[in-house]
């Protein structure tokens, strides 16, 4: 398959970027370790590992958006896209070529985060289910990356995905605090967006709570599907209007 | 059969006609230079021929394949070395070559073999294991042309292949391009008139979206009565012929 060559190239670009290694793997683990240490020194159960670890795993996926958006935006700013557009690659080859390399990275990122949480007390009995749920949320974050990479330049991607999205994903996801306790409009907004549901789905999966899982997962899957459609539309448009 | 034939090829952007009813034929194995000042329509022409931009009207045939009706077949036989750096920065020279062979459908093993052959043919041995982003402009341009050749295209578009290179690097690349004569149909766009004169079999001059002259460089000098090719180009591109 022609798209495999593009998949291989994009995967190489991603894993050879120190930014990917730090924010994709090291940063979530640092957060996990620090917050576990804090938990040990406070009397209330604020950062219980079964809530914290799946939450950090989802939060780490926000960086997948940054990585994929940066890769696409950088490619669009060079003539490489022009070269590829003149090749026999089809639209589907392009979308798969940019999206597929992120999936193994997402799985690896989730696995690493949960595996490192095991010595801190996380029960891995429901690891396959949790990874499956993380895969769904990763599609949502990757679709956001395709979308932002298609409509923004690489400097704008840094601001929107690097700062705004990671903050939105942090504040409105309930990873660090219970958004229900804030209540009001804040909770309403958090509940309407997918970040909180992605975290709650991962938490439900991690403890095998199959009753709570479908509702949250449905919201995440719906957002993932919607964003993917938008991303394909924006990506195709961006590539057709590529430089030259 | 001609390698390239355009029939009333036209592209409009709103009220602006970038390419206006272009009729052109380029023979197989010909080294053809397409010249014009900025905005003359040559880049738009190349973009249409490479399938990057659909024509507003008209058509072009690449080895008999229509760019409007059979784009997929046309794309298989062409390759392009764009004006700007068009390499994957984190890949090595060898990986870049294998990558392009791969996107044209070559298997991984065959792509790596082709990459090794191209490295030898283009004299890239000393930088084969280096990542593209660490190469000088000259090496990157040489790699870019090698990436255009690795798919063994029947038609190769070279857009400003020596732009920004020093005179030695430029002469080295001239030798590479010269070596393609008769084997591959090459369409060259350049702002260096001495490059077009030295390398091309024929020259097409575009102005305001139209082809205003088409002949050998020597014939164009004679036709305009100019002292040299640069003067002939100025006469033709500025529409001063016969004044």
Task: Kindly describe this structure.
The complex is a heterodimer of chains A (244) and B (243). Chain A has helices at residues 2-15, 18-40, 49-77, 80-85, 91-99, 102-117, 127-151, 154-171, 179-182, 184-192, 194-206, 213-240. With 244 residues, chain A is mainly α. In chain A, helix 3 (49-77) runs antiparallel to helix 8, helix 7 packs parallel to helix 12 (213-240) and helix 11 (194-206) packs across helix 12 (213-240). With 243 residues, chain B is α/β, with parallel strands linked by helices. Chain B has a domain at 4-86 and 154-237: Rossmann fold, CATH 3.40.50. In chain B, the strands form 2 sheets. Chain B has a 6-stranded mixed β-sheet with strand order 6-7-8-3-9-10, with helices on both faces. In chain B, a hairpin with a 2-residue loop joins strand 4 and strand 5. In chain B, helix 3 packs across helix 4. The model of chain B has no long low-confidence stretch (mean pLDDT 92).
Helix and strand pattern of chain A: HHHHHHHHHHHH
* Structural domains of chain A: how many: 1
Rg from Cα of chain A: 18 Å
Sheet bearing the most strands of chain B, described?
6 strands, mixed
Structural class assignment of chain A: mainly alpha
What proportion of the residues of chain A form beta strands (DSSP E)? under 5%
Strand order of the largest sheet of chain B: 6-7-8-3-9-10
Task: Describe the oligomeric state of these chains in a short phrase.
Answer: heterodimer
Q: What's the total count of β strands of chain A?
A: 0
Proportion of strand residues of chain B: 25-35%
Continuous helix count of chain A:
12
Low-confidence stretches of chain B: none
Q: Output the structural class of chain B.
A: alpha/beta
* Average pLDDT rating of chain A: 89
Q: Order of SSEs of chain B, N→C?
A: EEEHEEHEHHHEHEHEEHH
CATH class placement of the domain at 4-86 and 154-237 in chain B:
Alpha Beta
Radius of gyration of chain B: 18 Å
């Amino acid at each position: 398959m022609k798209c495999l060559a593009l998949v291989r190239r994009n995967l190489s670009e991603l894993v050879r970027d120190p930014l990917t290694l730090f924010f994709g793997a090291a940063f979530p683990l640092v957060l996990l370790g620090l917050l576990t240490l804090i938990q040990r020194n406070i009397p209330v159960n604020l950062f219980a590992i079964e809530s914290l670890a799946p939450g950090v795993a989802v939060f780490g996926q926000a960086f997948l958006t940054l990585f994929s958006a940066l890769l696409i935006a950088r490619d669009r700013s060079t003539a490489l896209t022009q070269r590829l557009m003149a090749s026999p690659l089809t639209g589907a080859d392009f979308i798969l070529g940019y999206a597929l390399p992120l999936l193994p990275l997402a799985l690896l990122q989730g696995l690493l985060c949960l595996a490192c949480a095991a010595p801190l007390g996380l029960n891995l009995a429901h690891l396959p289910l949790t990874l499956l749920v993380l895969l769904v949320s990763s599609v949502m974050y990757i679709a956001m990356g395709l979308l932002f990479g298609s409509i923004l330049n690489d400097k704008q991607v840094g601001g929107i995905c690097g700062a705004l999205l990671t903050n939105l994903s942090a504040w409105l996801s309930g990873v660090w605090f219970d958004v229900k306790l804030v209540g009001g409009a804040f909770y309403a907004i958090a509940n309407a967006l997918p970040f909180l549901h992605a975290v709650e789905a991962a938490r439900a999966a991690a403890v095998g709570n199959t009753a709570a899982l479908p509702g949250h997962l449905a919201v995440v899957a719906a957002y993932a599907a919607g964003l993917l459609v938008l991303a394909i539309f924006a990506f195709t448009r961006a590539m057709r209007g590529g430089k030259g | 059969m001609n390698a390239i034939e355009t029939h009333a090829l036209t592209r409009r952007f709103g009220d602006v006609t970038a390419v206006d009813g272009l009729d052109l034929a380029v023979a197989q194995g010909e080294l053809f230079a397409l010249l014009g000042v900025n905005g003359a329509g040559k880049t738009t022409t190349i973009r249409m021929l490479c399938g990057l931009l659909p024509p507003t009207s008209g058509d072009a045939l690449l080895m008999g394949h229509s760019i409007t009706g059979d784009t997929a077949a046309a794309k298989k036989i062409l390759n392009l070395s764009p004006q700007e750096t068009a390499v994957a920065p984190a890949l090595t020279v060898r990986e870049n070559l294998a990558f392009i062979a791969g996107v044209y459908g070559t298997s991984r093993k065959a792509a790596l073999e082709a990459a090794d052959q191209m490295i030898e043919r283009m004299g890239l041995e000393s930088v084969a294991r280096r990542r593209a982003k660490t190469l000088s402009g000259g090496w990157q341009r040489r790699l870019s042309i090698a990436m255009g050749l690795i798919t063994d295209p029947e038609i190769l578009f070279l857009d400003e292949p020596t732009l920004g290179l020093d005179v030695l690097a430029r002469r080295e690349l001239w030798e590479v391009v010269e070596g393609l004569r008769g084997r591959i149909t090459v369409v060259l766009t350049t702002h260096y008139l001495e490059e077009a004169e030295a390398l091309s079999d024929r020259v097409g001059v575009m102005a305001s979206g139209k082809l205003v002259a088409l002949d050998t460089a020597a014939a164009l000098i004679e036709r305009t009565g100019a002292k040299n090719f640069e003067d002939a180009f100025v006469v033709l591109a500025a529409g001063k012929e016969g004044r």
